[in-house]
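Example (one chain per record):
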Amino acid sequence: MLGDATLPYPMQVATWNINSIRTRLPHVTQWLQDHVVDVLCLQETKVIDGDFPLQAFEDIGYQAHVYGQKAYNGVAMISRVPLQRVRKGFAAILAADRVGDLDAQKRVISAVIGDICIVNLYVPNGASVGSQKYDYKLRWLHCLRDYLQQLLAEYPNLNVCGDFNVALEDRDIYDASDKANHIMASAAERQALQTVLGIGLQDAFRKFTAEPGQFSWWDYRAASFRRNLGWRIDHHYLSDPLYERAISCTIDVEPRKLEKPSDHAPVIVEYPTP
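Predicted structure:
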């Protein structure tokens, strides 16, 4: 319930593709202790649920809800207070015949905290334009629209976050001049994501800065981070009422400077005390 004294306000919700919880666990737990984020949405955990290091988070005052698979994909929600209505996969909302094979990969989990429904996503990469994996990505995004539309009807305050593997605008890429047919920037991917956002979602980060050169992912190759050859593909998309409430949205590049880092940086949105 809104204003419940047990809820953490002001509230911070973060998203971070950590590219293996086993490899990055010390980075994640230290970051949580340094930042005291209320809900952390992780992607690419790459472990089955039984192998997720729950105790490491409990030791620092957090609880975890996980939805993973061996070696690939996987999402988790780490929180300081109990989450409600935790739902895993598209099929938790949509009919099985609509979902088809799209839940075989563990990529979506949602939960409620206070009056906010948080959806944590790891959108398929797509590999290369025109490939089977690319077609799968487009189908997945089309299903995502249906999924979020149903959630939005239930929860007017919707925070959809995660690694979307799409740079929606040219200013979200270090050099967009040759990326028109590049994975994560092709017209079909951008249109599919725009269709998702068309249900009534807005980019929290762009509420606070219009500047180019702001990125959340840098390839490990070609000294991309040092040269800031990045992409902004990790997002918080908010329903209209929640967009109005948001008071900041930032990218924390510091974890990308660590030894053996994830190639992504955390993105944090903050809401004020109601």
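Caption: The first strand starts at residue 11 and ends at 17.
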